[in-house]
Amino acid sequence: MSLTLKHIVAYLTLLIIPCIAFSASSEKNLQEKNLQPIVVTIKPLYSLVAQLSEGIEQPILLMKQMQSPHHYTMRPSERRLLANARIIVWIGPQMETYLSKVIQQQDAVIISAMQASGLNFLKQRFSRQHLSGQHSSGQHFSRQQNNTKQNHLTANHLDPHIWLSADNTIVISKHIAQQLIASNPENTATYKKNLQQLISKITQLKNEIKTNLKDNAQPFITHHDAFQYFENENNLNYIASISFDEESSVSLKHLRQIKTSIKKNNVQCLVYQPPKPDIIEALADKTKIKTAALDPLGSTLSPGPDNEKNAWFKIMRSIELNFKRCLSQ
Q: What strands lie across the sheet with 38-40, from one edge to the other?
């Protein structure tokens, strides 16, 4: 039986219409995700989300300016971005203090890295406790093992720079992946594949950093005590901090104690978080100590999708290299 042109057209129409409908549906889903994106607060965390979401969607970075997340001033456009977000990923109120109230007003799914089960936390140190030269590696608290004490200490006592531990970063990545899968189950296979690739890359970098910083017992001091997770994971010899946080003032008495500690412990390295505080210049000039910039937030990374996607890896590698240079004799 021969087919007429009319039959052929009708047959092709039956094939094409479902394809058009599927394409329109996919495009609508994509548009909805673009209109209601995943918003991530800081670069190291954004890096993890971008790696986990590869091939599915691209998250949006909230903090692109060089400001402290403790005292960040949001623009109106950033407030609108949060209001339209489908998912918001942040460390928690201990880090992004400026978001504590704002985030309670959002309808989005909120993913807090500090809530990941299995994290090993370190208690914040107070530098005056360490000026004797008997440094502390910090007290460890596991959310999984000591939840009651953890909840009591979280608000004011725990160091929130949790991503500076590779082991913690793996825990955080798993936590985020679980939440993304719950929100977008049709892409479960892709999220799981991306998670395994991410864990493999994190583990490889962790091992390389440990090898490169192995047996380095040279003491150092910090301006702002933000690096103890990195120190602990790589057995570095912390002595003291100049200030409790990056914006605290320093008394003359405490500065004299720091200078005494530098001489007593033969400290040759002083690390700080950029931008470089004036007190670092003054202290380095008087003591001839070497200085190194360590950038835990990736604030000095050049803007661009590659740097943002790989921010965590670039941050950790940069901290390793700058520590190694500063601690070398």
A: 60-61, 38-40, 87-90, 109-112
Question: What are the angstrom distances between the C-alpha of 122 and each of 68, 155, 225, 328?
Answer: 21, 13, 12, 27
Q: What confidence tens digit (pLDDT) does each residue in 170-200 have? A: 999 999 999 999 999 999 999 999 999 999 9
Instruction: Report the alpha-carbon distance of residue 295 to residue 272 in Å, rounded.
Output: 8
Query: String of b and e for 276-301 (b: at least 16 CB within 10 Å)?
Result: ebebbeebeeeeebbbbbbbbbbbeb
**Nearest by Cα to 198 from 37, 50, 40:** 50
Name the 3-class secondary structure at 195: helix
Residue whose structure tokens are 């941050």? 315
Residue 134 has what DSSP assignment? -
- Contacts of residue 71, defined as CB under 8 A and 6 or more positions apart, other chains included, come to 97, 98, 247
Distance, CA of 191 to CA of 177 (rounded, Å): 6
Domains of the chain: 215-327 (3.40.50.1980)
Measure the CA–CA gap between 121 and 162, rounded to whole angstroms: 7
Q: Can you read off the two tokens belonging to residue 225? A: 């005590």
Phi, psi angles (nearest 5°) of residue 294: -115, 125
pLDDT tens, position by position, 225-244: 899 999 999 999 999 999 86
User: Rounded to the nearest 5°, which phi and psi values hold at 217?
Assistant: -100, 5
